[in-house]
Amino acid sequence: MKDDVLAVLRDAIIAGKFAPGERLNEKDLAEQLGTSRGPIRDSLAALAHEGLVVHEPHKGARVPLLDKADIEDVYTLRVALETLAARTAVERARAADFDALDHALSDLAKAFEKGDRRGITDADLRFHDAFYQAAHHDRLSVAWRTVRSQVALCLFSRNTVSATSREIVVDEHVHLLDLLRTRSESALVDAVRAHIETAYQRLVASYD
């Protein structure tokens, strides 16, 4: 039950069903989800650990208000993690890893064709999940999971993907995968850094 409640609340926050800054009342959420306040309380605590909920003394939980400084924090950390993943994956990636990356890339292209914003975000994140998995570095994967939900919130909370950006976004991921296949470490690290920097600039521009 707790895991189900956690997944529902996580998805709702990332999808924008709760407004930035909105209070999350345990009693109201328990009634909406048909559960007791215990699983709600535990789930909100877990989401706070993921950075999707902010707890304030005497006020309770609320959805965070992301500003440019928050975006910069998330994306500078992401650069550090993902460039390490690139260096390690070049040495350790296996056939199954490439299959997972290919599948996520195919889903990303299909989501763009349908104009499915949530599908785009999900496929984008699954591509990067597979990228980290290709590094076969357990502690690095744990570090990615701690920031993953915040990346998802950044991606989905700002409408930064347009029809004209389809080829750019898909081509960037194709390029990353091609460089990983050829085990081109230096070029892959540079491409990962450029890819994340481009995503960061799109997000920051959406605040102007």
From TrEMBL:
One of its GO terms (molecular function) is DNA binding. Pfam families: FCD, GntR. The keyword Cell inner membrane does not apply. The keyword Transcription regulation applies. It comes from Mycolicibacterium smegmatis (strain ATCC 700084 / mc(2)155). Keywords: DNA-binding, Transcription, Transcription regulation. Coiled coil: none annotated. This is Transcriptional regulator, GntR family protein. Residues 1-66 form the HTH gntR-type domain.
